[in-house]
């Protein structure tokens, strides 16, 4: 699942968290010198050896609207909730499923998953976790009135029932290979039924909080200031001992203020660090990078007008200065993309994906080619409206660079800056997309399954905004969704990927690295995209 870059969404807009990332920071304060080369990717860090009484962690995207795991579809919510609430499984360092509130599952036939629940698990208040709590939690997500973006996992769901005291059975209408991935997502995070029902609409708010099972307990929420968590010393997972006693989350969004707080030590750490501060912070503490499941791309919203001619889309791909964007805008903390889904998201059959990926056009700027294409196309000379999020300095600069290059190629791009509210509306309301031809988007996948993105462009998909229709593409995605053999599934996905690259319904630009900073006295945390859905604070501690 991918999400808009918004700190808070209405229930309607929460469903829009499927094509654009909520994990992006606001503006980064302009360019920094000396950050145009690729950083070292951190795959491991020394384990902590000391306990720490408290850590202050800043949420760069601002104060969350709730800490209800059902709404963990934006970065500010997910970064907190992942340390409190747990799913039936979790994602390991390699993004593979690991047991959590379930010990395992069987898959007796293509339509059935039988999940064995872990015995003896208790909520923070000491009450036992029951199959009914699990059922309530999952079914709660499925209530459209709740407005959870995680409802999307159940498109092929027939039903979910307790088939034993410690057993849950999921039945599907048709095979869907993506379903097991969601067992580790907030779609299956477990909350205490009685507590949630009593809290009602206040569940997840500052008034009520939440009741879960994870390594950190909800403490307090002083709105406008901080959310505090405390270590759950009765956590069932005795194999992992969190080193931090108390966690305090702050909500500073101004990049300059973020940098000042990190440099001074008033804040101990932060994901999505302003790029202008990377060099300075690297000299002070731990400024780390990890490969991500995040693409930045141009999405076609209007298949008519100028973009109706393939030559226009081909010219757009040719005129983008990929090296310039990565070096100047992202300061070397990104890589160019040949396809919508980045290589880090190939969760299986990497050899198959790599071979097919290498066949796709290399992302290089070729202004002469762009000029030639425009010269032969009357449509390419028509005005193109490109929308982007003004809150992101990176996207503002990228959009401006694209528009400038288009002018040099003989095209006309009119930039349309969008507020956060307008940006979110694009994903929810057709009228908000009116008059927009192209949309600059940054997103991420929650787990390394390319299908989770490519399915959005099949005929009839809610998120297929331009109405893209390619029967061969649809057939390849449909076949992949029901193919459990990894290599065979990868071949079908790669077939669809190649068709999309040829049709250019979107134009991939780059994949940004995950970044995190924490002070020199801390160690253990490795930057991975999965921090949004896993208890990342359990890896952090003192040196």
From TrEMBL:
GO terms for cellular component: ATP-binding cassette (ABC) transporter complex; periplasmic space. It is a lipid-anchor. The keyword Kinase does not apply. InterPro entries: Peptide/Ni-bd, SBP_5, SBP_5_CS, SBP_5_dom. The keyword Zinc does not apply. It comes from the Bacteria. Residues 97-461 form the Solute-binding protein family domain. One of its GO terms (molecular function) is peptide transmembrane transporter activity. Keywords: Signal. One of its GO terms (biological process) is peptide transport. Residues 1-24 form the signal peptide. It is found in: Cell membrane. Belongs to the bacterial solute-binding protein 5 family. This is ABC transporter substrate-binding protein. It comes from Planobispora takensis.
